[in-house]
Amino acid sequence: MEMTMRWYGSRYDTVTLQQIRQVPGVTGVISTLYDTTPGEVWTREAIHALKEEVEAAGLRLSGIESVNVCDSIKVGDADRDKYIANYIETLANLGKEDIHLVCYNFMPVFDWTRTELARVRADGSTVLAYNQKAIDAIDANDLAASMDKMSNGTVLPGWEPERMAKVQELFEMYKDVDGEKLFQNLVYFLKAIMPVCNEYDIKMAIHPDDPAWSVFGLTRIINSEKNILRLMEAVDDVHNGVTFCSGSYGTNLENDLPHMIRVLKGRIHFAHVRNLHFNDTSRENYDFEEACHISKDGNFDMYEIVKALYETGFDGPIRPDHGRMIWGEKAMPGYGLYDRALGATYIQGLWEAIEKNAQRG
Ligand SMILES: [Mn+2]
Fold first, then answer.
1. Lesser CB count within 10 Å: N end or C end of the chain?
2. Strand pairing report for 287-290 and 276-280
3. Structural domains in the chain?
4. Residue 247 Cα to ligand 1 middle (Å)
5. What's this model's pTM, rounded to 2 decimal places?
6. Annotated catalytic, 293?
7. 360 Cα: distance to centroid of ligand 1 (angstroms)
8. Per-block average pLDDT, block size 10, for the chain (361 residues)?
9. Active-site hit among 87, 245, 339, 346
10. Which residues of 164-297 form beta strands (DSSP E)?
11. 130 is annotated as an active-site residue
C-alpha cells in the first residue's frame, strides 16, 4: 500500500503540499482538477501542471478523486455518448500523463450527505454527523443551502454552488430513474470506457454511496456487498474496480466490512479508511458521527479492516478519510490537516504490526 492524503489544490485547500510532505509515511496525494465541470474534457496540459506542482513538493500524484460523471450519463440521456466520448478523452490524457487510478461515484443529485458539519464532541473537537430525523425534516433544496453555510467558506466537493442552484432541475431529470435503470446506465458507461482503461492501464474505482441508502427518494445502488459484486460481475475486468470506503459502506451496520474486502479481493484499487461512532441505530432516529480513526472511538474494528486489506494483497493508495477538526484548525469540514495526519500514522502502525506479524509467522 501507499499512504496518501487527499489534496484539493493550492487554490482551494487550506492544507499545503509542504505540510502533507511532513506527515510521516505519506508519499502521495490524491487530487483533482477542481475547476472543471463534469462532462468537460481535461486537457493534458492541465493534468501535467497539477502533476508537476505535486512532484515539485516531493510527492507523487497517486490518483484522481474524482473525475465526476455528468448527470446525462447517469440518467442515460440521448446525449450521453457525447459525454462518454469526453470522459474517454480525459482518461486517455490521464494515461498519457502516467496516472492510473481514477475514483468516481454514481450517486444521483447529491454526493455524500450529512446533516451537521461541525457537531461538537465531548473533547471539544468537531465532526461531520448524520441524523435521520433532521434529514426527514428538511427540504432537499434547503439542505444544499445549509451545507454551503456550514462549509467554513470552502467549496465542498460534490456540493458546488453552481450545481446546487439547479437542484430542482436535477430532481426532475432523475424522476424516472430507478435502481435498475441507474445500474444499467452505469454498466453502459463502464463497458464504453473499458477499452481506453485497458490501453492505458487505468483502474476505475467506484466510490460507494454515502450514506448507503436512498436519500430524498433518490435511488442509490453502490451500497452493499451484493450490489457491488453484481457490478464487478457485470463488467468483469480488473479495470472496473472499487474504492473501498469504510466510512461509507459502514453507514449501514449490516455491511460486514472485513468480509466485503475479502470478497472483493483483486478489485479494490483505492482505500478510504475511517471510523464512525453510532449514537442511535433505530430506524427513526438513526444517528452517527465521524469519530477519530482509532477503533475504540467508534464502532468499527479498524485492525480487522486493515488486516483484510493486507491479507488480500491490497497494493494501491490508501488514505485516511474525513478527520475531526481539532487544535483550533480552520479548514474544509472533514479535511483539516491534524486529525487526518493522526489517522495516517495510526493506519500505518496497524499495517506495520500486521505485516511483521505475518512475516514472522
Ligand atoms: Mn470515502
1. C
2. antiparallel
3. 2-360 (3.20.20.150)
4. 6
5. 0.93
6. no
7. 33
8. 96 95 98 92 97 98 96 95 98 98 92 87 95 80 66 62 74 89 97 98 96 83 95 98 97 96 98 97 92 96 98 97 95 95 98 96 77
9. 245
10. 203-206, 240-245, 268-273, 276-280, 287-290
11. no
